[in-house]
Amino acid sequence: MTSSRIAVVLPLAEARSAHLWTAILRRHDGVRVFVPAQPDVAAWPEDARPTQLAYHGVRHNTQWLRGLESLVCGGRFDLVHLIGEPWSLSAHRL
Question: Is the Cβ–Cβ distance between 56 and 30 less than 8 Å?
Fold first, then answer.
């Protein structure tokens, strides 16, 4: 049985509020977590770090994560889960 491929897009890179995603990254090879490139990513455990993307914008609902579409489309994910407001730029783009 093949495992599902899942992409998760988080609006923030804070490790302290990402315990669930850290645990999932450690247990499931098919999951990728995408976050904006921020110094907070350094606090994630080395064995469960998200993929950082450069971004434009200062608030999470106006962020433009560069390269997000090509990563998600090229990754052939079975499920894409975006944590964010429905009117955010990332949600509209995906």
Answer: no
State pLDDT tens for residues 11-53: 888 888 888 999 999 999 999 999 988 888 999 999 999 999 8
What does pTM read for this prediction?
A: 0.84
Give me the numbers of helices (H) and strands (E) for the chain, helices first please. Answer: 3, 6
Find residue 80's DSSP bridge partners. 7
Q: d(Cα 73, Cα 43) in Å, to the nearest integer? A: 28
Q: What is the CA radius of gyration of the chain?
A: 13
> Which neighbouring-strand residues pair with 34?
9, 51
Q: Sign (positive/negative) of CA torsion 29, 48, 82, 71?
A: negative
